[in-house]
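Protocol step 4 of 5: obtain the predicted structure for the target chain.
Materials: sequence only (see below). No template structures provided, no constraints applied. The aim of this step is simply to have a reference model before the mutagenesis design in step 5. Sequence pasted as it appears in the construct record:
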Amino acid sequence: MRVLRRVAAAAIAVATLAAIAGARDLLARAESAAGPLQTVTVARQPMTPGATVEAGDVEARSLPAGAVPDDLADAPIGRIVVADIYAGEPLIEARLAPPDAAGGGAMLRRDEQAVAIPAEVVMPPLVPGDPVLLIDTDDPASAATTATGRVIAVGELAVVVAVPTADAAPIAVAASAGRVAVTVRHRADG
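Step 4 output (structure tokens):
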């Protein structure tokens, strides 16, 4: 009986060592596939458009090189957020205003212009970052007078929306004539 117990114990020890060796091999293969670890700056908590990135908003985290985005922000502190950033997400250039941007223009991407929609236009409650559809109510079927946009500011007199540069003039004309309807789109469509 003792011999049987010793054989069983030896078999368990060999199986355990084989499992550990297999796990180490699997881990080594996974690390080589994902690449070495790289330290990146990530958000500690969610940040919304219009916020300025402060030192307490971010932390350094090691990620596999294969999981690191190509357009990491080099110096995010002090920059303005232009698109939602989620907790744990690496800070990338596309979600931040250029380093020298300030004021209302900081919220605009390179291919956008800001259009003010008068507050007397009936619209749903809006907050910065909301994706919207702006429709010229004189010609709602025309693609030339419909634009997708992103709310960048909400004030007492107007809501400011970033729209593609090509759509800015027709929407501004329609807005000044009181002919714009505003609808909110799902954030995933933004």
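Step 4 remarks: The chain has three domains: 1-34, 37-95, 108-189. The chain has a mean pLDDT of 82.
Proceed to step 5.
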